[in-house]
Amino acid sequence: MMSFGTCSKEDIPQLKALWKIVFDEEPRFLEQFFSWRIQPKAIFAAKEGKKIVSALHALETTYHKKGIHYPVSYIVGAATAVEYRQRGLMGTLLGLVKAHYSHPITLFPAVRPFYEKHGYITTSSTYMYPLKKNTEIQVHSSSLTSEHLNAIYMEATKSCGALDRDAIAWQFLTDGYETVSVSGAYAFIHQNKAVEAMAVDASSALLLVHLLQQKGIESIQVLSDSPFALTGGTPVPMGMATDASLQGLYIAEQY
What we know:
Blueprint: E1 2-6, H1 12-23, H2 27-36, E2 43-48, E3 51-65, E4 68-80, H3 89-100, E5 105-107, H4 112-117, E6 121-122, E7 125-130, H5 146-156, E8 162-163, H6 167-176, E9 178-182, E10 185-190, E11 193-199, H7 202-215, E12 219-222, E13 234-237, E14 240-241
Parallel strand pairs: 4-5, 11-12
Antiparallel strand pairs: 1-2, 2-3, 3-4, 3-8, 5-14, 6-14, 7-12, 7-13, 9-10, 10-11
């Protein structure tokens, strides 16, 4: 018989095993996540008897907009064992999460149409611009702390709003991406693309673009109202939410 509900500490080994099988995760990331981010009462699971066959983590956090912070949950690790898929288990878990909290639920989708079917809307898009390699202008990179990165992020997103990032979130991001930065701007690099670029002003943005061109980065993704003076952009849908009041909010992948 299938049952649905939140988890306890005793469920952690099963949850970890399910995550590892479904996502083929690197052991280091898996250990860090289950050491740093585990919130059993915010984990929703489907069990057949005592066996966990589907689960998601609805991490409780906050988002900011125009200087005010609001509660929100952020779903990660939505996983179903292969032999239990196509049975509506994940849809049931999503419904439980939404019913459990009075605040909005957000996520960064792996399969966007699936979440649209369950009432999630895409809140915003970034714009991707191509970059051409240019080594004529030499820019020296800076090494910024997570506090400096967060200050840039908060300033860059103060108008549109964004999910808040604590020290652990920044640790996961800087471990998972190559980070390129100058004073007042940074970018996360994945497969030779700057998948997130933030700057506090036009001069910092220009320096970062020059540094990325110098490194031969192929493209850059920025906010629609960013200080990056670029042309020919293509919209890239970002995160999703259950509440239309979050329209415009920047939601990227984070843990």
